[in-house]
Amino acid sequence: MKGEKEEDYCVRIPLLYGSRDVGEKEQQYTNFCGNNASFINTCFNGLNALSGVGILSIPYALASGGWFSIILLFLIASSTFYTGLLIQRCMDLDPTIRSYPDIGDRAFGKTGGTIVSITVNIELYMVATGFLILEGDNMSNLFPDMDFYIFGAHIAGKTGFVILVALIILPTSWLNNMSLLSYISASGVLATVIILSSIFWAGAFDGIGFQEKGKFVNWNGIPSAISLYAFCYCAHPVFPTLYLQTDGGYWLPYVCFSTTLQVLFLCFAFCTITYSLMAVIGYLMFGSNAESQITLNLPTHHTSSRVAICTTLVTPIAKYALMLTPIVNAVEARFQSSCNKRMCSFLIRTILMISTVIVALTLPFFGYLMSLVGALLSATTSITIPCLCYLKISGIYRRIGAELVIIAFVMLSGFIVAVVGTYVSMVDIISHL
Protein backbone atom coordinates (compact mmCIF):
# COMPACT_ATOMS: atom_id res chain seq x y z
CA MET A 1 0.00 0.00 0.00
CA LYS A 2 1.37 3.41 -0.86
CA GLY A 3 1.84 5.80 2.00
CA GLU A 4 -0.54 8.69 2.11
CA LYS A 5 0.95 12.02 1.13
CA GLU A 6 1.14 13.92 4.36
CA GLU A 7 3.50 15.74 6.70
CA ASP A 8 4.59 12.84 8.82
CA TYR A 9 5.77 13.19 12.38
CA CYS A 10 9.42 13.91 11.87
CA VAL A 11 11.69 11.30 13.37
CA ARG A 12 14.71 13.58 13.23
CA ILE A 13 13.20 15.51 16.08
CA PRO A 14 13.27 17.19 19.30
CA LEU A 15 16.32 18.97 20.47
CA LEU A 16 14.96 19.59 23.92
CA TYR A 17 11.65 17.91 24.05
CA GLY A 18 10.20 14.45 24.60
CA SER A 19 7.77 14.86 21.94
CA ARG A 20 6.58 14.74 18.53
CA ASP A 21 7.69 17.36 16.02
CA VAL A 22 6.71 17.44 12.41
CA GLY A 23 9.00 18.66 9.74
CA GLU A 24 9.86 16.60 6.70
CA LYS A 25 9.21 13.34 4.93
CA GLU A 26 10.51 10.15 6.42
CA GLN A 27 14.09 9.29 5.51
CA GLN A 28 14.53 6.46 3.05
CA TYR A 29 15.70 3.38 4.91
CA THR A 30 17.20 0.17 3.73
CA ASN A 31 16.08 -3.12 5.16
CA PHE A 32 16.10 -2.58 8.91
CA CYS A 33 16.61 -6.10 10.13
CA GLY A 34 20.27 -6.97 10.02
CA ASN A 35 21.27 -3.47 8.87
CA ASN A 36 23.42 -1.76 11.51
CA ALA A 37 23.11 1.70 9.90
CA SER A 38 19.32 1.57 10.03
CA PHE A 39 19.43 0.29 13.59
CA ILE A 40 21.67 3.17 14.68
CA ASN A 41 19.60 5.74 12.78
CA THR A 42 16.39 4.55 14.35
CA CYS A 43 17.93 4.53 17.84
CA PHE A 44 19.09 8.10 17.21
CA ASN A 45 15.61 9.11 16.03
CA GLY A 46 14.00 7.50 19.04
CA LEU A 47 16.41 9.22 21.41
CA ASN A 48 15.68 12.58 19.80
CA ALA A 49 11.97 11.95 20.21
CA LEU A 50 12.31 11.16 23.92
CA SER A 51 14.94 13.80 24.74
CA GLY A 52 13.24 17.07 25.51
CA VAL A 53 12.64 20.07 27.74
CA GLY A 54 11.43 17.63 30.36
CA ILE A 55 15.04 17.26 31.45
CA LEU A 56 14.98 20.88 32.66
CA SER A 57 12.03 20.22 34.98
CA ILE A 58 13.05 16.81 36.29
CA PRO A 59 14.95 18.18 39.35
CA TYR A 60 11.88 20.27 40.20
CA ALA A 61 9.75 17.13 39.93
CA LEU A 62 12.04 15.28 42.32
CA ALA A 63 12.04 18.26 44.68
CA SER A 64 8.23 18.28 44.60
CA GLY A 65 7.84 14.61 45.53
CA GLY A 66 11.05 13.91 47.45
CA TRP A 67 13.55 11.07 46.99
CA PHE A 68 10.80 8.47 47.14
CA SER A 69 9.21 9.85 43.98
CA ILE A 70 12.13 8.75 41.82
CA ILE A 71 10.59 5.27 42.02
CA LEU A 72 7.62 6.75 40.19
CA LEU A 73 9.95 7.90 37.41
CA PHE A 74 10.97 4.29 36.80
CA LEU A 75 7.32 3.15 36.95
CA ILE A 76 6.33 5.76 34.36
CA ALA A 77 9.29 4.75 32.19
CA SER A 78 8.31 1.07 32.42
CA SER A 79 4.66 1.76 31.66
CA THR A 80 5.38 3.97 28.65
CA PHE A 81 7.94 1.46 27.36
CA TYR A 82 5.26 -1.22 27.52
CA THR A 83 2.65 0.95 25.77
CA GLY A 84 5.24 1.73 23.10
CA LEU A 85 5.34 -2.00 22.36
CA LEU A 86 1.53 -2.10 22.32
CA ILE A 87 1.55 0.49 19.53
CA GLN A 88 3.64 -1.79 17.34
CA ARG A 89 1.41 -4.75 18.15
CA CYS A 90 -1.55 -2.68 16.97
CA MET A 91 0.32 -2.04 13.73
CA ASP A 92 1.16 -5.74 13.39
CA LEU A 93 -2.52 -6.61 13.77
CA ASP A 94 -3.59 -4.00 11.19
CA PRO A 95 -0.89 -3.27 8.56
CA THR A 96 -2.92 -0.32 7.20
CA ILE A 97 -2.04 1.76 10.27
CA ARG A 98 0.41 4.48 9.25
CA SER A 99 0.11 7.12 11.97
CA TYR A 100 -0.90 7.55 15.58
CA PRO A 101 -4.43 8.84 14.80
CA ASP A 102 -4.87 5.78 12.56
CA ILE A 103 -4.68 3.61 15.67
CA GLY A 104 -7.62 5.48 17.23
CA ASP A 105 -9.49 5.26 13.93
CA ARG A 106 -9.01 1.49 13.62
CA ALA A 107 -10.03 0.94 17.24
CA PHE A 108 -13.00 3.29 17.57
CA GLY A 109 -13.80 4.52 14.09
CA LYS A 110 -13.60 8.05 12.74
CA THR A 111 -14.56 9.51 16.11
CA GLY A 112 -11.67 7.71 17.80
CA GLY A 113 -9.19 8.97 15.20
CA THR A 114 -10.49 12.52 15.57
CA ILE A 115 -10.21 12.43 19.37
CA VAL A 116 -6.63 11.11 19.21
CA SER A 117 -5.69 13.73 16.62
CA ILE A 118 -7.19 16.58 18.68
CA THR A 119 -5.45 15.36 21.85
CA VAL A 120 -2.07 15.23 20.14
CA ASN A 121 -2.52 18.66 18.54
CA ILE A 122 -3.53 20.27 21.83
CA GLU A 123 -0.45 18.75 23.43
CA LEU A 124 1.76 20.18 20.67
CA TYR A 125 0.11 23.59 21.06
CA MET A 126 0.68 23.65 24.82
CA VAL A 127 4.31 22.56 24.46
CA ALA A 128 4.90 25.31 21.87
CA THR A 129 3.43 27.74 24.39
CA GLY A 130 5.77 26.32 27.02
CA PHE A 131 8.69 27.10 24.72
CA LEU A 132 7.83 30.80 24.80
CA ILE A 133 7.55 30.76 28.60
CA LEU A 134 10.89 28.95 28.81
CA GLU A 135 12.53 31.54 26.55
CA GLY A 136 11.10 34.44 28.55
CA ASP A 137 12.19 32.94 31.88
CA ASN A 138 15.76 32.24 30.81
CA MET A 139 16.28 35.48 28.91
CA SER A 140 15.09 37.50 31.90
CA ASN A 141 17.42 35.40 34.06
CA LEU A 142 20.36 36.31 31.83
CA PHE A 143 19.36 39.99 31.59
CA PRO A 144 17.46 40.68 34.83
CA ASP A 145 17.59 44.50 34.56
CA MET A 146 16.44 44.84 30.98
CA ASP A 147 13.06 46.46 30.24
CA PHE A 148 11.42 47.44 26.96
CA TYR A 149 9.74 50.63 25.82
CA ILE A 150 7.53 50.59 22.73
CA PHE A 151 6.03 53.92 21.67
CA GLY A 152 6.53 55.16 25.20
CA ALA A 153 4.81 52.16 26.80
CA HIS A 154 6.81 50.25 29.39
CA ILE A 155 6.97 46.46 29.01
CA ALA A 156 8.49 44.32 31.76
CA GLY A 157 11.56 42.28 30.92
CA LYS A 158 10.03 38.79 30.84
CA THR A 159 6.97 39.93 28.85
CA GLY A 160 9.21 41.80 26.44
CA PHE A 161 11.45 38.79 25.92
CA VAL A 162 8.46 36.55 25.16
CA ILE A 163 7.25 39.03 22.53
CA LEU A 164 10.78 39.48 21.14
CA VAL A 165 11.32 35.73 20.80
CA ALA A 166 7.90 35.39 19.15
CA LEU A 167 8.88 38.02 16.57
CA ILE A 168 12.13 36.16 15.89
CA ILE A 169 10.32 32.84 15.51
CA LEU A 170 7.41 34.17 13.43
CA PRO A 171 9.21 34.12 10.02
CA THR A 172 10.21 30.48 10.60
CA SER A 173 6.56 29.59 11.19
CA TRP A 174 5.72 30.81 7.68
CA LEU A 175 8.09 28.31 6.05
CA ASN A 176 6.51 25.42 4.20
CA ASN A 177 9.80 23.52 3.91
CA MET A 178 10.89 22.59 7.42
CA SER A 179 13.86 20.42 6.40
CA LEU A 180 16.51 22.83 7.72
CA LEU A 181 14.78 23.34 11.06
CA SER A 182 14.19 19.62 11.42
CA TYR A 183 17.93 18.99 11.10
CA ILE A 184 18.68 21.69 13.69
CA SER A 185 16.12 20.25 16.09
CA ALA A 186 17.48 16.74 15.61
CA SER A 187 20.33 17.19 18.06
CA GLY A 188 18.24 16.38 21.10
CA VAL A 189 20.71 13.79 22.37
CA LEU A 190 23.63 16.21 22.05
CA ALA A 191 21.69 18.99 23.80
CA THR A 192 20.75 16.64 26.63
CA VAL A 193 24.39 15.65 27.14
CA ILE A 194 25.57 19.28 27.00
CA ILE A 195 23.01 20.47 29.55
CA LEU A 196 23.63 17.55 31.90
CA SER A 197 27.41 17.97 31.67
CA SER A 198 27.25 21.76 32.14
CA ILE A 199 25.06 21.49 35.23
CA PHE A 200 27.28 18.77 36.74
CA TRP A 201 30.30 20.98 36.06
CA ALA A 202 28.58 23.92 37.77
CA GLY A 203 27.94 21.79 40.83
CA ALA A 204 31.34 20.10 40.98
CA PHE A 205 33.73 22.90 39.97
CA ASP A 206 31.91 26.26 40.15
CA GLY A 207 31.29 26.34 43.87
CA ILE A 208 27.65 25.23 44.08
CA GLY A 209 28.33 21.77 45.44
CA PHE A 210 26.03 18.83 46.16
CA GLN A 211 25.35 19.44 49.82
CA GLU A 212 21.54 19.51 49.85
CA LYS A 213 19.94 16.47 51.51
CA GLY A 214 16.31 16.99 50.47
CA LYS A 215 13.25 15.23 51.83
CA PHE A 216 12.53 11.54 51.63
CA VAL A 217 8.92 12.08 50.57
CA ASN A 218 6.52 14.98 50.15
CA TRP A 219 3.09 13.47 49.65
CA ASN A 220 1.50 16.79 48.63
CA GLY A 221 3.95 17.09 45.76
CA ILE A 222 3.61 13.54 44.43
CA PRO A 223 0.85 14.38 41.87
CA SER A 224 2.95 17.19 40.38
CA ALA A 225 6.06 15.00 40.33
CA ILE A 226 4.41 12.09 38.51
CA SER A 227 2.76 14.48 36.03
CA LEU A 228 6.14 15.97 35.13
CA TYR A 229 7.62 12.47 34.86
CA ALA A 230 4.84 11.57 32.41
CA PHE A 231 5.66 14.68 30.39
CA CYS A 232 9.20 13.33 29.89
CA TYR A 233 7.88 10.22 28.08
CA CYS A 234 5.33 11.68 25.69
CA ALA A 235 6.89 10.72 22.35
CA HIS A 236 4.38 7.99 21.50
CA PRO A 237 2.75 9.80 18.54
CA VAL A 238 6.15 9.50 16.80
CA PHE A 239 6.46 5.77 17.34
CA PRO A 240 4.37 4.63 14.34
CA THR A 241 6.82 6.51 12.11
CA LEU A 242 9.76 4.85 13.83
CA TYR A 243 8.17 1.45 13.23
CA LEU A 244 7.91 2.00 9.49
CA GLN A 245 10.39 2.07 6.67
CA THR A 246 10.12 3.17 3.06
CA ASP A 247 11.07 1.16 0.08
CA GLY A 248 10.58 2.72 -3.33
CA GLY A 249 7.73 4.89 -2.11
CA TYR A 250 5.95 2.09 -0.28
CA TRP A 251 5.53 2.03 3.46
CA LEU A 252 6.41 -1.31 4.99
CA PRO A 253 6.32 -2.38 8.63
CA TYR A 254 9.57 -3.54 10.15
CA VAL A 255 9.45 -7.33 10.30
CA CYS A 256 11.62 -7.83 13.38
CA PHE A 257 9.72 -7.30 16.58
CA SER A 258 12.86 -8.22 18.52
CA THR A 259 14.74 -5.38 16.81
CA THR A 260 12.02 -2.91 17.69
CA LEU A 261 12.19 -4.16 21.26
CA GLN A 262 15.94 -3.50 21.27
CA VAL A 263 15.52 0.00 19.86
CA LEU A 264 12.85 0.95 22.38
CA PHE A 265 14.79 -0.55 25.26
CA LEU A 266 17.97 1.34 24.37
CA CYS A 267 16.09 4.62 23.89
CA PHE A 268 14.13 4.33 27.13
CA ALA A 269 17.15 3.12 29.08
CA PHE A 270 19.35 6.00 27.91
CA CYS A 271 16.70 8.66 28.54
CA THR A 272 15.75 7.23 31.93
CA ILE A 273 19.40 7.22 33.00
CA THR A 274 19.91 10.83 31.88
CA TYR A 275 16.66 11.96 33.50
CA SER A 276 17.59 10.18 36.73
CA LEU A 277 21.08 11.68 36.76
CA MET A 278 19.71 15.18 36.13
CA ALA A 279 17.09 14.75 38.86
CA VAL A 280 19.62 13.55 41.44
CA ILE A 281 22.29 16.11 40.52
CA GLY A 282 19.82 19.00 40.50
CA TYR A 283 18.20 17.97 43.77
CA LEU A 284 21.57 17.57 45.50
CA MET A 285 22.59 21.00 44.22
CA PHE A 286 19.48 23.01 45.08
CA GLY A 287 17.23 20.80 47.23
CA SER A 288 13.69 22.07 47.76
CA ASN A 289 14.71 25.40 46.15
CA ALA A 290 14.94 23.81 42.70
CA GLU A 291 13.12 25.96 40.14
CA SER A 292 10.71 24.68 37.50
CA GLN A 293 13.67 24.95 35.09
CA ILE A 294 17.03 23.97 36.54
CA THR A 295 18.71 26.68 34.46
CA LEU A 296 16.95 29.37 36.54
CA ASN A 297 18.92 28.22 39.59
CA LEU A 298 22.30 28.59 37.90
CA PRO A 299 24.52 31.62 38.59
CA THR A 300 24.81 33.31 35.21
CA HIS A 301 28.40 34.55 35.66
CA HIS A 302 29.88 31.06 35.21
CA THR A 303 30.70 29.76 31.72
CA SER A 304 29.15 26.36 32.42
CA SER A 305 25.87 28.03 33.40
CA ARG A 306 25.84 30.14 30.26
CA VAL A 307 26.48 27.08 28.10
CA ALA A 308 23.50 25.29 29.67
CA ILE A 309 21.24 28.34 29.36
CA CYS A 310 22.25 29.11 25.76
CA THR A 311 21.69 25.49 24.74
CA THR A 312 18.27 25.72 26.33
CA LEU A 313 17.49 28.97 24.48
CA VAL A 314 18.55 27.97 20.97
CA THR A 315 16.54 24.79 20.71
CA PRO A 316 12.93 25.98 21.12
CA ILE A 317 13.54 28.69 18.51
CA ALA A 318 14.35 25.98 15.97
CA LYS A 319 11.58 23.66 17.12
CA TYR A 320 8.63 26.00 17.55
CA ALA A 321 7.58 25.98 13.89
CA LEU A 322 7.97 22.21 13.74
CA MET A 323 5.65 21.82 16.71
CA LEU A 324 2.87 23.84 15.06
CA THR A 325 3.13 22.20 11.63
CA PRO A 326 0.69 19.30 12.29
CA ILE A 327 -1.82 21.75 13.78
CA VAL A 328 -1.51 23.99 10.73
CA ASN A 329 -1.93 20.99 8.42
CA ALA A 330 -5.08 19.88 10.25
CA VAL A 331 -6.62 23.36 10.07
CA GLU A 332 -5.61 23.81 6.43
CA ALA A 333 -7.21 20.48 5.52
CA ARG A 334 -10.44 21.76 7.08
CA PHE A 335 -10.49 25.04 5.14
CA GLN A 336 -8.48 24.19 2.02
CA SER A 337 -11.48 24.37 -0.29
CA SER A 338 -12.70 27.75 0.95
CA CYS A 339 -9.62 29.98 0.69
CA ASN A 340 -6.35 30.57 -1.15
CA LYS A 341 -3.93 27.95 0.14
CA ARG A 342 -0.90 30.19 0.59
CA MET A 343 -2.82 33.07 2.16
CA CYS A 344 -4.77 30.66 4.35
CA SER A 345 -1.55 29.04 5.58
CA PHE A 346 -0.01 32.43 6.32
CA LEU A 347 -3.02 33.57 8.35
CA ILE A 348 -3.32 30.30 10.28
CA ARG A 349 0.35 30.29 11.24
CA THR A 350 0.28 33.93 12.30
CA ILE A 351 -2.91 33.53 14.34
CA LEU A 352 -1.51 30.44 16.05
CA MET A 353 1.67 32.32 16.93
CA ILE A 354 -0.28 35.26 18.38
CA SER A 355 -2.52 32.92 20.37
CA THR A 356 0.44 31.09 21.92
CA VAL A 357 1.98 34.42 22.93
CA ILE A 358 -1.28 35.42 24.62
CA VAL A 359 -1.48 32.11 26.49
CA ALA A 360 2.21 32.32 27.49
CA LEU A 361 1.72 35.81 28.91
CA THR A 362 -1.55 34.85 30.63
CA LEU A 363 -0.21 31.61 32.15
CA PRO A 364 3.53 32.22 32.65
CA PHE A 365 3.96 29.19 34.90
CA PHE A 366 6.24 26.75 33.10
CA GLY A 367 6.30 24.10 35.82
CA TYR A 368 2.56 24.11 36.47
CA LEU A 369 1.70 24.24 32.75
CA MET A 370 4.00 21.35 31.87
CA SER A 371 2.60 19.43 34.83
CA LEU A 372 -0.88 19.97 33.37
CA VAL A 373 0.30 18.84 29.95
CA GLY A 374 1.94 15.77 31.47
CA ALA A 375 -1.14 14.76 33.45
CA LEU A 376 -3.97 15.63 31.08
CA LEU A 377 -2.35 15.03 27.69
CA SER A 378 0.90 13.06 27.96
CA ALA A 379 -0.50 10.41 30.28
CA THR A 380 -3.47 10.09 27.94
CA THR A 381 -1.51 9.79 24.67
CA SER A 382 1.35 7.71 26.08
CA ILE A 383 -0.47 5.38 28.48
CA THR A 384 -4.26 5.34 28.29
CA ILE A 385 -4.86 5.56 24.52
CA PRO A 386 -2.38 2.79 23.50
CA CYS A 387 -3.90 0.46 26.09
CA LEU A 388 -7.50 1.17 25.06
CA CYS A 389 -6.77 0.87 21.36
CA TYR A 390 -4.81 -2.36 21.72
CA LEU A 391 -7.59 -3.94 23.78
CA LYS A 392 -10.13 -3.03 21.10
CA ILE A 393 -8.03 -3.92 18.03
CA SER A 394 -6.74 -7.20 19.44
CA GLY A 395 -10.01 -8.22 21.04
CA ILE A 396 -8.11 -9.38 24.08
CA TYR A 397 -10.68 -7.75 26.34
CA ARG A 398 -12.98 -10.70 25.56
CA ARG A 399 -10.87 -13.15 27.56
CA ILE A 400 -9.39 -12.79 31.02
CA GLY A 401 -5.68 -13.50 31.29
CA ALA A 402 -2.38 -12.16 32.58
CA GLU A 403 -1.97 -9.77 29.65
CA LEU A 404 -5.42 -8.27 30.18
CA VAL A 405 -4.67 -7.75 33.87
CA ILE A 406 -1.36 -6.02 33.10
CA ILE A 407 -2.90 -3.75 30.49
CA ALA A 408 -5.83 -2.92 32.75
CA PHE A 409 -3.43 -2.01 35.57
CA VAL A 410 -1.32 0.21 33.31
CA MET A 411 -4.41 1.86 31.85
CA LEU A 412 -5.90 2.47 35.29
CA SER A 413 -2.61 4.00 36.45
CA GLY A 414 -2.63 6.36 33.47
CA PHE A 415 -6.22 7.34 34.18
CA ILE A 416 -5.44 8.08 37.85
CA VAL A 417 -2.41 10.18 36.86
CA ALA A 418 -4.57 12.09 34.39
CA VAL A 419 -7.39 12.81 36.83
CA VAL A 420 -5.40 13.58 39.99
CA GLY A 421 -2.54 15.35 38.20
CA THR A 422 -4.90 17.52 36.16
CA TYR A 423 -6.83 18.56 39.27
CA VAL A 424 -3.67 19.47 41.21
CA SER A 425 -2.16 21.34 38.24
CA MET A 426 -5.33 23.33 37.67
CA VAL A 427 -5.49 24.26 41.36
CA ASP A 428 -1.84 25.39 41.24
CA ILE A 429 -2.38 27.47 38.11
CA ILE A 430 -5.58 29.12 39.38
CA SER A 431 -4.00 29.91 42.76
CA HIS A 432 -1.14 31.75 41.02
CA LEU A 433 -3.25 33.81 38.62
From TrEMBL:
Name the record gives this protein: Amino acid transporter transmembrane domain-containing protein
Stored InterPro entries: AA_transpt_TM (IPR013057)
Chain ranges passing through the membrane: 66-87, 107-128, 148-168, 180-202, 222-243, 263-286, 306-325, 346-366, 372-391, 403-424
Organism: Deinandra increscens subsp. villosa
GO-annotated cellular components: membrane
All residue ranges annotated as the Amino acid transporter transmembrane domain in the record: 36-425
Swiss-Prot/TrEMBL keywords: Amino-acid transport, Membrane, Transmembrane, Transmembrane helix, Transport
Keyword rRNA processing: no
A single GO BP: amino acid transport
Protein localization: Membrane
